[in-house]
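Give me structure tokens for this 449-residue protein.
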Amino acid sequence: MKKFFSQSLQKQALVAMLVGVLPIVLLTLWYAQSIDQHQQETLTIYDKNQQLTLEYNYIKADIIDIEKALKNNQILKSNQLKESIAQKWQGTHQRIKLFQQELQNTNFVAKWQRLPKISLNSGAEFEKLVLALKQLDPLFQQTLDQRLAKKTDQFKSLQTEFIIGLIILLPLLVIISSFLIFRICRQLSQVETVLADVGKGQLDSPVQLTGSQELKQLGSRLDWLRRELKRIQQQKETFLRHVTHELKTPLASINEGSSLLNSGLLGDVSEKQKRILAIVEQSVAKLAQMIDDLLSYSAASHPDNLQQVAQLSQFEQEITQHLSDTIAQRDIALYWHISSNATVPYLPCKLILTQLVSNAIIHAKSTVNIYIRQNNNTIELNVSDDGQGINPEEAELLLQPFYQSESSQNSQGSGLGLAIVSECVNQLKGELKWQETESGASILITFPC
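Here you go.
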């Protein structure tokens, strides 16, 4: 059985069709042939009945003629007429034998044979025979009807056998088809699961698809794709770490130089020079923020982040202190609602809350609410604000690196915030949902604890 399901889907479908459909086709052909044969036999019996009816009428007519001839000869006393009557009776008697052979083993013939034998000397005996045959007329017609009724019963039996065959074979076909469809759907479900894992960036587990030959080939190709994606991801992380660390040193020099010039220790600075230095400091700050985001994005997908753990209550003070300047500039009220003190992976959760709260502060009008709770074996992180909200058409795009919505294009963000959140959620094997609210935006993160 296992060897059969390792064959190609085409062969499996062909065998299933032969096992399930071929018996029904053969049954249908047998039924059609039997119906045709039955119709031919019915027509033959109908024609035979017509001939037997004519023959029976001829025999009765001959007996009546012989009766009349015998009565006439009693008066005429003609030897020639007597010989003619004898020859006619001999022919009629032969026809009666042939007629009885056609209807042998019937009640009609049995009753006819029980009639007393007659001689050619008396017309009265033939008169009695005519009356006896008239009494047998209903039985004769009944005998003919029974011959047709027998074929009708055979036709009904044929129909019953065909229906019973269908009743047996159709469920068999349904079972075989359902089983094959179930096998194919289960194999396709493997592909869907693998594609979902690869799409989420879960590239550590080898891809192994079981089932048909095509599926195994697809599994080997997907595994090659997984290895290539993992290699590219590792190169990306190495590149990001290298570039960001290399940028930090000259950036720190630029920042110290501009601060030294602004301090006036190297001489007076004109107003125009101060404006230029202010632009330089803003650009340095933006570049430093982008470098920090790149480092966070690189760190978000690193598997070692799950090793260090912390309690949920620890994040309120750390994140509030980290974003204190932004909160003061925006004059936003931050409300934390923590109803669980479970232990969770430290860095992914901190990055998630930092990025979500930071985005909420930027887009909020006055308040940001952070809900942290445990629901059975699931941790829920929910951040909502009272800002202008998110365009549903852009919701999925916002999770891509460097994508910014129209409302955020003028801000100083790098476009990596929600991409970092998405990477951390994947690391936690969780789920990110955009929740519908009357105003503002609300993002719910759930992951197993």
